[in-house]
C-alpha cells in the first residue's frame, strides 16, 4: 500500500486529503489496503482517515466490539476529528454501530457494507484448519462472489494470520464477541442517515441481513451490488464508490 502508517500516542492509522472527515473501519481479517480504492476516489475532496483497530493489541480479557468502540472514541477525540462519517465493513461496521449508539453526536452519517451486528456466517460456519493452505484459500474465496478476488497475496496474509497462535485466539475471541452482541433492539436509536451498500451474493452477512438493517434503522437507504460478496469496496469499487459519492453529496453537501 502506498500510504504510510502513522504511529503516535498508541494509535496507528493512515490519513489523506482535507475537508469533511471520512473514517474507514476495516473488518476482522481486513487490511488497510481493502480501502485503497475508496481513499483514492475521495481524498481530493475529503479528509480520509483509516485507523488500525487494535484487535491484536488490546488485553484479551477485555477484547470485544465494545472495547473497539471505546478505542475509536479515544482516537476521534485524540485527532480532534469532530463530527465524522463512519464507513465500516464487516466487524468495522459493527464497531461503527456500537460507537454511533453511544456517541451519535460525533457521527454525521454512517455507511455499512457487509456489517455484522445482526447475523454473520464467518468462515462459512467453521473456523479453518490452520495448517491447510488450500482450506484457507477456499474460505477466503468464500468471502467473494468472484473467487479471483482472493488474490494469492490476500490468501497468504490470512494464512499467516491464522497460523499465529496468539492472533488466532484473539480472532476467535473477537468473532464470539461480535456474534453475542446482537444490536437488533438498539438500532432504532440511530436517527442519523445510514447507507447500506450490500453485495447481493454475500454469504457471510446474506441479503436478508441487509433487509433487516434497512427495516430497523429509521433513516436508512439500501443499495445492492450485483455479483458481489462480502466486501463490495474490494470486489466492485467503482459501484461502491458511486453509491458512496451519491450518499455523501446528499447528506454533507445540502
Automatic annotation (TrEMBL):
UniProt protein name: Alpha/beta hydrolase
Coiled-coil zones: none
Keywords (A to Z) from UniProt: Hydrolase
Organism: Pedobacter rhodius
InterPro entries listed in its UniProt record: AB_hydrolase_1, AB_hydrolase_fold, AB_hydrolase_sf
GO MF term (any one): hydrolase activity
Domain AB hydrolase-1 positions: 21-237
Keyword NADP belongs to the record: no
Statement: the UniProt record of this protein carries the keyword Nucleotide-binding: no
Amino acid at each position: 500500500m502506498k500510504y504510510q502508517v502513522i504511529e503516535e500516542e498508541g494509535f496507528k492509522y493512515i490519513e489523506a486529503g482535507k475537508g469533511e472527515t471520512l473514517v474507514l473501519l476495516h473488518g476482522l481479517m481486513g487490511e488497510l489496503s481493502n480501502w485503497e480504492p475508496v481513499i483514492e476516489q475521495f481524498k481530493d475532496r475529503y479528509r480520509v482517515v483509516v485507523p488500525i483497530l487494535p484487535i491484536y493489541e488490546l488485553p484479551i480479557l477485555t477484547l470485544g466490539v465494545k472495547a473497539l468502540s471505546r478505542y475509536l472514541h479515544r482516537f476521534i477525540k485524540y485527532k480532534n476529528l469532530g463530527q465524522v462519517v463512519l464507513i465500516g465493513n464487516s466487524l468495522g461496521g459493527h464497531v461503527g454501530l456500537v460507537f454511533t449508539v453511544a456517541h451519535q453526536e460525533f457521527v454525521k452519517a454512517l455507511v455499512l457494507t457487509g456489517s455484522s451486528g445482526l447475523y454473520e456466517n464467518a468462515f462459512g460456519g467453521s473456523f479453518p484448519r490452520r495448517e491447510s493452505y488450500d482450506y484457507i484459500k477456499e474460505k477466503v474465496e468464500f468471502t467473494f462472489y468472484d473467487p479471483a478476488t482472493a488474490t494469492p497475496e490476500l490468501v497468504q496474509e490470512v494464512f499467516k494470520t491464522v497460523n499465529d497462535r496468539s492472533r488466532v485466539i484473539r480472532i476467535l475471541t473477537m468473532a464470539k464477541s461480535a456474534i453475542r452482541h446482537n444490536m437488533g433492539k438498539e438500532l432504532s436509536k440511530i436517527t442519523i442517515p445510514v447507507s447500506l451498500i450490500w453485495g447481493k451474493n454475500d454469504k457471510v452477512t446474506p441479503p436478508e441481513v441487509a433487509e433487516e438493517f434497512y427495516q430497523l434503522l429509521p433513516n436508512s437507504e439500501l443499495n445492492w451490488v450485483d455479483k458481489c460478496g462480502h466486501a463490495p469496496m474490494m470486489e466492485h469499487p467503482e459501484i461502491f464508490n458511486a453509491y458512496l459519492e451519491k450518499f455523501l453529496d446528499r447528506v454533507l453537501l445540502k
